[in-house]
Task: structure prediction
Amino acid sequence: MLLLLSTLILPLLPCIYVLVTYPLTPKLHLLLPPLLLSFVLSFVLSILLIPRIKHYPLKAGLFGKDLGKRGTKNENVKVPESLGLVSGVVFLTILLLLLIPFSKFLPERLPDLNSSLISITFMVLLGFTDDVLDWPWRYKVLLPTLATLPLLVAYDGPTSILIPGFLRSFLMSENQLTTIGELVTHIPTVVVDTEAAGAIVNLGLLYLVYMSFLSVFTTNCINIYAGINGLEAGQSYVIGCFVLLHNLLEISNNSLSTPHHFFSAVIILPFLGVTAGLLKFNWYPSSVFVGDTYCYFAGMTLACVGIHGHFSKTLLLFFLPQIANFLWSVPQIFKFVPCPRHRLPRFDSKRGVMLPSNFDCGKGEYRLLKWRSHHEDGKDGPGVNMTVINLTLQLLGPMGEEQLTVILLLLQFACCSLGLLLRYNVGSIFVEE
Amino acid sequence: MLLLLSTLILPLLPCIYVLVTYPLTPKLHLLLPPLLLSFVLSFVLSILLIPRIKHYPLKAGLFGKDLGKRGTKNENVKVPESLGLVSGVVFLTILLLLLIPFSKFLPERLPDLNSSLISITFMVLLGFTDDVLDWPWRYKVLLPTLATLPLLVAYDGPTSILIPGFLRSFLMSENQLTTIGELVTHIPTVVVDTEAAGAIVNLGLLYLVYMSFLSVFTTNCINIYAGINGLEAGQSYVIGCFVLLHNLLEISNNSLSTPHHFFSAVIILPFLGVTAGLLKFNWYPSSVFVGDTYCYFAGMTLACVGIHGHFSKTLLLFFLPQIANFLWSVPQIFKFVPCPRHRLPRFDSKRGVMLPSNFDCGKGEYRLLKWRSHHEDGKDGPGVNMTVINLTLQLLGPMGEEQLTVILLLLQFACCSLGLLLRYNVGSIFVEE
Result:
């Protein structure tokens, strides 16, 4: 309980610090109460609805048995699945209600809200159908790509990137395009800004393709960095808090991109509310599972704020653990190494701790590629499943499930802090405008 | 097969007649090929995808046994449920792709497309969750109401109604508001246009409330006028064809509302395509069921075109059988009369015909209200379930399931024709602009 409360409050502290110490514009001052209300309302609605709704998936046979409780008296408890549906619908309801003030007071941001609503609703639908029907991978990649179309069509931000100083000379020298520079301009829709001495390259349509990839990545990466109680909702909550922090910092800077960051803050607050509400029930020991529904919903929501907030590259910096987990998983995802259905750590019920989980090596054909785990008897065992969760257990040793979640969330917090530091200090490479 | 083909082709004939005989504007001439392509594409995609996807719901335990095949060798065949999901997703995919030409060539109708996408996606989501989780009635009314919000926010049409001549004198006489007229103006947001001698009453917000009710009605009324093979998709197909016919007539009139009717035609064509594709598999004997997913999806799509096409009252005229079925069902829906879980007709396997189905009268408490059915032995039986389907069987006698579907679709065709006749001849009461 104490750990859950700290998880909910700690990542919000920097945001509160910014709100208290930085001067607020009069407009933000006026809007703060309704914004906080949307956070509280979405939290309270989630808290009230999840216990009422959780019987429906149970009745429909949509439940799982917690593999992390194997060997305990709770191993056969049916835990209802896909309660991320409640979070998604509560969040979408608030966004639907926001249409009214947006159309009255912020018509210039209405297309952003509309496209976010379309993309997120589509992903909640896809997520829930995936929980029920278990789609093959090709659908999981194709459908999110389609779902990002509204975001790209509504996108009115820059499509240029800044080239770091030391690379500019490869594109231009003496006010002329170099051979490489010439080659680059032959890529369709790409334009090197010759006025800016190679500092600015407009990617045009390719930038939209990049944002589409980004969305497909964010919708799937949470889903594969999952499997222990509280991790899916926890990581999304921490990332969401850093998004809010970044928004608040930019709003108080009062830069050109303030309206976009304001939009992002408006969207992320109810997201944090529903996620906090879900985390209450999904925290160790979970009484509900979040389902693919939540993972897709969270991933697409974060992509929406990144794209419409015009900080998609900064957003990627907040996803460092997910990127690491994806890269580390590549050999298994693309079947260079065997990939069992579940890769979550296994539970040692005698000692009450989680251990890294293994895959079978088959008939030795994967010998060269496999990652060897050192069993306690000192011998090489079969390969350890390649996830950051298992890697943490390999590096830090066996530990309880709750402790493991907390350590992974601390890692998330540290990575997000590092990302923000990079964004504001190492900087111009990652700056959007 | 022949009956299915006739069902698909017959209601389209009037549309083809209009296209061939009325002069086409050059713009429509240019747009006709891509429009027809969207119809063909959505049809072909449905035909290809439904047989591939239908194994997923079967595997997930999402299937039903056809109650209309009881007592035959097919009574235990598992028929996959909710294949309306495929129709919905194919349709939404086409709408998503339409975002690109709309944002380039028709930016003034983009809000209509956006809001339709949000509302329809939300309803597909609600429908599929209903198929899986079986929501209670309060959610089935509350959530569609929310889903109509985007439509109302994006609505830019008139909110006034024309008062029929013989009623105007009740509102105004001698250029003064009568007592009734005064009372009417005391309803919030309602304004009687005194310049127009009581002919025009602006309902303001109340008009939006009416459109919200309309959408909730259309999303639910198809769902309760259902239960025999091909009826849900068939009725939606016939209504959709009449919507298209109305659009084409108005476009060729080249009136002020042409852009709105054009929008409606663009949306309804892929809808007809996916519905025709679904009907191929849902026609007697059904190899797939459409699910609440399809009913909600179809109802909301029809509401969208009615609202954004500015012909919501004409749309209601196309729903005469559904309105009759709803009104006739009211005693059972509101539990004045017992309401069993299923009200579809029962199948007499010996004679191969459908018979009206009954409800138990309980302990006589409903005696006064019940509708008595005359059994073949001449005695009063228990009450007959109050649906238009059962009523048809009571009036026309027992018949096979396919024949029953065809008769009900003919009834739909007749009612829609009557509606269109009323719209253009009796007229000014129902005219929108």
User: Anything to note?
Assistant: The longest strand of chain A covers residues 380-383. Residues 2-147+228-316 of chain A form one domain.
